[in-house]
Amino acid sequence: MSVHLGVYDIIKSPLITEKLSLLNEDQNLYGFEVDRRANKIQIREAVEKIWGVKVVRVNTMVRKGKPRRVKWSWEHEPSVKRALVWLAEGDRIE
Fold first, then answer.
1. Which of 20, 27, 38, 60 has the fewest CB atoms lying closer than 10 Å?
2. What integer pLDDT is reported at residue 25 of this predicted model?
3. What residue segments make up the domains of the chain, in order of their start?
4. Residue 15 CB: number of other CB atoms within 10 A?
5. Which fold has domain 7-87?
6. Pairing mode, strands 80-87 and 73-76
7. Closest Cα to residue 34, out of 56, 6, 55, 54?
């Protein structure tokens, strides 16, 4: 069962890391934090609509939330879904 999410509800924020910056230049790869309910097809459509580019491939992963110490107890950060998106040659996201 797929949930109908708006284009701007699917993509939460871009992932900006040193490793992804290098992969941007070499493999035309971009990373995004996405809604946990979104599937690969919805992520592909959202990126194509927002930035007007052609998506070649999408990989997703769920990063488990880490336990954090808060005063006298432990709490967990929420789990986060990430998407790695490969663009067609010649396309770029600024």
1. 27
2. 84
3. 7-87
4. 15
5. Alpha-Beta Plaits (3.30.70)
6. unpaired
7. 6
> Whats the size of the chain, residue-wise?
94
The residues with which 73 forms a beta bridge, in sequence order, are 70
**In tens digits, what is the pLDDT along the chain, a chain of 94 residues?**
566 788 899 999 999 999 998 988 888 999 999 999 999 999 999 999 999 999 999 999 999 999 999 989 999 999 999 999 999 988 888 8
**The overall pTM is greater than 0.90:** no
And the tokens for 42?
Answer: 């919805």
Structural tokens at position 15: 């992932």
Rounded Cα–Cα distance for residues 49 and 23 (Å)? 22
Structure tokens belonging to residue 90: 């010649």
Structure tokens at 14: 């871009």
